[in-house]
Amino acid sequence: SGQKVCYGAFKHSCYKLAYFQDLSRRVGFQEARQACEMDGGALLSLESEAEQQLIENMLQNLTKSGSGISDGDFWIGLWRSGDGLATSSVCPDLYQWADGSISPFRNWYTDEPSCGSEACVVMYHQPTANPGLGGPYLYQWNDDRCNMKH
Q1: Under the phi-then-psi rule, with left for phi > 0, alpha for psi from -120 to 50, and beta for the rest, what region is 82?
Q2: Which of 46, 95, 100, 137 is the most interior residue, by most CB within 10 Å?
Q3: What confidence tens digit (pLDDT) does each residue in 52-92 have?
């Protein structure tokens, strides 16, 4: 399920947002990735500030539409394979896009990525959380454990 919206201006012209109020329907990174691929797409690659802004606007519209969206982060298609260098300073450079995009655009929250056992990336969506050092936990990126349910 999810809402599909198409535009002409971006390389990826159609986007589909899937948000599950029901926690039992939320899935881990690989499940989300497979669901997108079965649907003929890929987990989202964000390749510019403009595309990031577009997705933020889509999420704001989804929230305004009265669907009762509450806290719940969204998987995006950025991940890091292997963990040999997970704690070193090169860790942020090891993240890659699931669809093969080579875009260097990143929108990490302050102090992210934290690396270690966290190798898959979410876009924050925690409107009820108290702001942290990087401001509200809305739309910036955070690395998380790949088996977390989002």
Answers
A1: left
A2: 46
A3: 999 999 888 877 766 667 889 999 999 997 655 556 678 88
Q: 90 by DSSP, 3-state: which?
A: coil
Give the bridge partners for 79, in sequence order: 96, 120
CA distances from 28 to 3, 51, 102 (A): 20, 24, 23
CATH number at residue 70: 3.10.100.10
Q: What is the pTM of this model?
A: 0.90
Identify whether the C-beta of residue 15 lies closer than 8 Å to the C-beta of residue 53: no
Long-range pairs for 7-11 at CB < 8 Å and ≥24 separation? 7/54, 10/47, 10/50, 10/51, 10/54, 11/47
Angle, CA 51 vertex, CA 12 and CA 94 arms, to 5°: 85
In a domain? residue 150: no
